[in-house]
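Human: I would love a firmer grasp of how sequence relates to backbone shape in proteins. Take your time, and here it is.
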Amino acid sequence: MSDFDPDQLAQELTIEEACTLLHGKDFWRLNGVPRLGIPSGFKVSDGPNGARGQDFLGGVTASCFPAGSCLGASFDVELAREVGKALARETRSKSACMLLGPTVNIHRSPLGGRNFESFSEDPVLTGLMASAYIQGLQSDGISATIKHFVCNDSETDRRTMSVVVEERTLREIYLRPFQIAFAKASPWGMMTSYNKVNGTYVGEQERLLQSVVREEWGVKDMMIVSDWWAVYSTTEAVLGGIDLEMPDSHFRGGGKLIEAAKGSKKVEAAVRRSAAKVLGLIKRAGGRNLQPELPERAEDLPEVRNFIRRAGAEGAVLLKNKDSILPLSKAMPIAVTGAFASVALAHGGGSASLNAHRKVSPLDGIRDYFTHIHYAPGAPADLLLPVVSSTPEGETGCVVEFVNPDGVLVETRHLSSSYLSALDRYPKDLQPGWTAIMRLKLRPATSGRHSLQISSPAEAILSIDGRELCRTEENPARRDYFLQAVLHKIAATAEIDMVAGQTYDVSIKYTSNEDYLYATNYTLNGVRFGFRESVDEDAVISQAVRVAEEAGTCVVCVGHSSDYETEGFDRDDLRLLGRQDDLIQALAESSAKVIVCVFTGCPIAMPWLDNVDAVIQCGYAGQELGYAVTDILSGVKNPSGRLVVTYPKRLEDNPSHGNFPGEGERVVYAEGTFVGYRHYVSRGVVSQFPFGFGLSYTSFSVDKLSVEGFDSFGPGRTCTLTVRVTNNGSVSGRHVVLLFVLPGDTASPVTRSAISLEA
């Protein structure tokens, strides 16, 4: 590719050609330049815990890896590198050249909706794990996209929110993971965030994107892409440093950028500079020899399954093990219960969700290993009623008819579930004011007063057997309707008496709203239908207690569903949804030994902690999570994970409390650099569990510390610390050694944290 010189080619482009390169061809693809033989087959895919491919809902299946917070809990950079390598193959199976990951935002608050995607509350751990992930991914020719630059640490009103942060905090906490990753791994792509920093959208800040990243950090050979619809201007964004607007051309198409470039030498220079960055990315994928896009493939390989299982187990953190109740013996009777025992919480919601090849539930994994298992379902704990994914006849999903205002049927489409989203490409011939009619059949297994629910930002009418039950109304003020985010806030629910075995015809008529995609807070056309048969929750809890007492030992599986821990909104508190806490407390008051497995990507309140026997923080461990947690419960794997975030005793103890998620489109990072453990240690605040905490089935001692190079230690210099780690038990295990740095005796003009992680 010696003839493919991005800088030279950028100068040979016409202004029209250059501007075309600076926006997406469609949702996942880049434009090319036919005149110069530059193909338009460069495709990107969502990550960071799998390569989903082009479909948000359904689509070709993919491998689902542990989420960032679970992977981070391993504190294992080699594991992160292996994950990156595996993801490269996955990305290629979707005929993509670039994966949108890793996510390196900071866990500023335990309520952050997207925390599970990111590695930690600590910038150094985040930067080191991200660096290894990027190295693994790019070693096989797939571009990483480190994201979201910068301070995208909450989801509430993220497109209008301005983060108020002082310079030292910005650099020491929020920019540092990016800086570490660029120094160690040189990611080929970086994604800008939706939010503003100190009053200006990040994508329009030349100081951050050009002066800091490209000049101060020396990052020249890297392409900057906007988050999807995170470009808010034409000239300001291109001058600020966003090279590529995705997913389309709202601000850079229609002649807008061409006109601006022809009218200003400065804008034209910025356009050609950005065109060179886009061409540089295309060159890495093959340049003029870029392979034509192939159909997406599902590569479900045994070795990948086994690797995901191992990685998920490495991220499990043992928080309590009273009287060494764990590990459990293979032949002992065990009761399994909880809302998420038979459901596999493999990932969170939003961009990180995907259609996994399979999802092994905890119940499936436990049954596969242990001999005597007794199961009792837990009470439901979803934020939304479950979508319907099969008909009474056993067929998958439902049928949707797209109809134009003149009554002409445009297309009939089969959906894998009762969820219709604009992100999955509507028919091209639809006209403003079109309607979609979703049809499906329900046949309840039980008689009772059952619940039906629709969610939509526009008008949708739910009918059963021709009778209207409920409707939603159009409201342009609805905020950030994205994937499954905030759907609970735009839902209408009805209850109806239904008879077991009887078939009911359900229809949902949806009328499209205006195109709000480019409003500052956008909405997307779509509708979701959910259904649940009635549940006597008191009876369910009583049954679980009876089964647990009969077995003597109980594993209860709790967590956050992907519609509750998700991109698009932040949680209000630390509590588990539904009656999960009630179930645990009832079990704790029984005669059974109780082991709690927590499937979340963030801290939760544990009012029952003192009354249970063991707790495992399992995280979102990927598609093999049932086997991963079974390996920990059985002792096949000795837990070695550590907490990547401090677990507070109370929400009020968190340093961001009172300044999260923000108010009046403004969030003040008033805690400064005292984020996470820096706050708890420096200010003497007692936590539930500290950062880095994690138990084992054995014990270790660390001694014989030696230091080389400390006498000459200073800026740009390194020193080496060596310790001896001894396993004092009879079980093999793994121990993580963390190096924290304390402030020196020299007076400092700024207040520093009592400790900070450095290695």
